[in-house]
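Quick note —
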Amino acid sequence: MEWKDWQHTSFKLKDCLPSYSGIYIVADKDDHVWYVGQAKDIQSRWQGNSHHRYSQLKRSNKKYHYTIYHYPFPIEQLDEKERYYINTLKPELNNSKVKQYLPKVPTLEEEIKRILKVLNKPNSLYPTIRSLILGQYQDQDNITHILCLINPNDYDILQNSATKKHGGLVRNAWSGLYRHSNRIIVWIDTPIYTMSGYQFEFYSGLEVINYLEKHSDKRSYYLQNGSILDVDVLMIKDLKILTLSNLVIEEKLKDKLPLLENTMNTNHQQESQNQSQELMTPSLPKKMTRWLVHIEEVEVEICKDENNKYYVRHNLFWYMINERKNPDPIHNNIINNLQRWVNNELPTIWWVGYRFKFEELEFEDGLITEAVLLPLKMFEDFINYHYHKIAQTYSSKPPTSFDRSYNIYQLGKWLKNNSLEQFKK
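Predicted structure written out below.
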């Protein structure tokens, strides 16, 4: 008996199935059979959400357009007929487990990263600037406060996060909401998202955003690309923008500005003190220890100073980028190139203001040399940045050992799930 000649009902109209006993077959628009079953009352079997495959089939019905074929058989024949059609048609789902799709509950870091990505994705209303990172400061409890300027239309994004049905952990990370008894939820205070070591504060920045959206010359002067938790963001690099054209900002935000300015001033003062100290201190070689590690055929030298800070010499990075072991400080413009990479290609919030310099180093084996020291994490960020560029170029086939980018690709691939931190001594 050809099942395609049976009576049939579309999956969406399953409530119209007959109530007799029989065999039913679920097939898609291409007549591919997905499930075979039996029922003493086919209509009751498919009533509501009672069928154990209903949720699974419903999720894919839009793609496959299922039809339920059915034919009456006496109850005493159902087992025999079901075995026959299963053995003959070999349906896709009969011998598979019923999938349970549980909503994924994001971690606190995953959720804030998702929000930052959305807030930095241009749309029709804000094609250039949708949100801005105003700055950061650290409080006495070592919590890093990151201040974000957003437009009023995007408060819904924060509200949706704060009311996630399956995200109790995420909901509790938010403060600033007022929940009415009739389930109407509004922001009555600054939206704040708190996670380990961080507090993200969201302020209305409509006038600042609109001003920079309209003045391209101001954008290039006052804005820079940056990164927070590995998410690309737009950052304000000079708070003077807030005094232009009497731009309106929230009063609570004005109270935070001195904290941001103090952080910037402290960084500048520390840099000046370091420079003064260097002038007053006799120029003695910096004592260092070093060791080699081999990662995916790549040799990496790790250095440690007397303060237990870890570095990689610029020579290694330069060799991996340009295949030159001893770049000339003047001819190759080492300092300016490193600074350019940080400012233009690696503008993470962590390295803004880092000052590169040549230092005389003395290693435990007696070697005295001069080099620019790259903090271990900065070296990783450099490699990760270039790895992603290489991975895009070699999307169909990875580079081979004959390619200049092979070492960076190998090391970058390893760094996706690892860190050089594990080789600290």
